[in-house]
Amino acid sequence: MSQNNFPKLHNATWPGIVGKGPDSEPVISLDEMLQFTANAEVDGVKFDGVDVGLFEPHVNLEGGDDEAKRLADKVSALGLKIGSVVAPIWGGPILGSDEDRATYLDMVEKSCKFAQKLKDLGVREYGIVRVDTASSPEQWAKDPKGSQKIIVETLKEAANIAGNYGERLAAEGEICWGGMHSWKTMLETLESVNSPNLGFQADMAHTLLYTMGYNFPEHRILPEGYDWQDRSVLTAALKEMTAALRPWTIDFHVAQNDGSVFGSGSHDKTGRHCLATDPHGKLNVVEDAAHWLRDENGNLTKAFKHICWDGCMFPNAVMGKQQTWNDILAALIKVRNAHGWSE
After folding, report:
1. Is the separation of the CB atoms in 40 and 328 below 8 Å?
2. What share of the chain is helix, strand, coil (3-state, %, to 5)?
């Protein structure tokens, strides 16, 4: 067994909410998600922490100091830390009205302030504040140049806000968010904002869709009709994409994908997260994680202190099994054994 103790291993709690609710299955409570995380164990190794969505019904972002302490106490009591947090910016789409953008920036500020409270309480020693554009590729495509200008200006303001609180924002590249819906567009957005307080959050399930050109066929890297049995072609595609986005990457989600899109509840279709053990998964999770965790020369980047498993929109019957979380932990351990380090 490897003695690596970095990066720390985190589980996401928001899969208990994302894709759930009135249009789908019931939400899984924060307490249940934390308990599944705390109870997972593989060969004596456990999760180090959780990444948390700062939205109802798990967290009341308006709850101030009392809510931050409640969350910190709850997580700490289980021997866990909090890493990255998700800003609930979807009520303020960047490509909406001036009022929408003001709402977006307000949510970013409230999230950064809350994240700082968690740091002050000693439960959060690392991690970022995750954002997206809260706007669809369809809206973006109505005026690509104009849309990019608005997105860049708004994200510059958001990054300045984050910097005021000692935080960094990470934009999660998903095909369902305008201005982030292809790898080249995502890169253009990051380069145009050009702030030390805005980076990229790479999710292996979502970025696989980048190579396939979903929602932006002109930017696909994998050829049409690609034979998934030919790993060399996929590896070359992943290398091209990660070479561009890895220098911006400040947060990382280990995930699996079967090469298809999926949405449930109110969530738009994006890369389908598969279980770590899914035989239909197109990625070799451990090998392909290396493209993000190591540079072009094979050296560890150590660009983030933790990695997180993200598996949204699984059925509740699957998420309600402790074995699911043990299998996920086992996958994360394998990634750390191969690409981790000791401190």
Report:
1. yes
2. 45, 15, 40
CB contact at 8 A, 176 and 270: yes
Q: How far apart are CA 12 and CA 253, in angstroms?
A: 9
Query: Under 8 Å CB-to-CB from 285, ≥6 apart: which residues?
Result: 204, 254, 255, 256, 276, 331, 334, 335
Average pLDDT, the chain: 94
As a whole number of angstroms, the distance between CA 319 and CA 1 comes to 27
**Could you give the residue ranges of the DSSP H alpha helices within the chain?**
30-39, 64-76, 98-120, 137-141, 144-164, 183-193, 204-212, 231-245, 285-293, 316-319, 322-339
Q: What was the pLDDT predicted at 270?
A: 58
DSSP letter for 27, please. Answer: P
Residue in this structure with the two tokens 């164990």, named with its chain if needed? 41
The residue whose two tokens read 């708004």 is: 154
Distances (CA, A) of 256 to 9, 34, 230, 321, 332: 16, 22, 18, 18, 12
The mean pLDDT of 62-88, rounded to a whole number, is 98
Residue 253 — very low, low, confident or very high, per pLDDT cuts 50/70/90? very high
DSSP-derived 3-state class of residue 274: strand
**pLDDT-derived band at 276, boundaries 50, 70, 90:** confident
Q: Which of 106, 213, 209, 124 is nearest to 166 (CA)?
A: 124
User: Hunting for tokens 């394998």 — which residue is that?
Assistant: 334
Residue with tokens 């669809």: 136
Closest C-alpha to 84, from 135, 13, 164:
13
For 194, counting Cβ atoms within 10 Å of its Cβ (0-12 exposed, 13-18 middle, 19+ buried), the class is exposed
CA 145, 139, 96, 269: dihedral to nearest 10 degrees?
Answer: -130
Mean pLDDT of 71-82: 98
Token look-up 């909406």 returns 96
Question: How far is C-alpha 164 from the chain's CA centre?
Answer: 23
The rounded distance, in Å, linking the Cα atoms of 288 and 203 is: 11
User: Contact, 14 vs 302, CB < 8 A?
Assistant: no
Can you tell me whether residue 281 is helix, strand or coil? coil
Rounded-to-integer distance, Cα 50 and Cα 75, Å: 8
156 class by beta-carbon count within 10 Å (0-12 exposed, 13-18 middle, 19+ buried) = middle
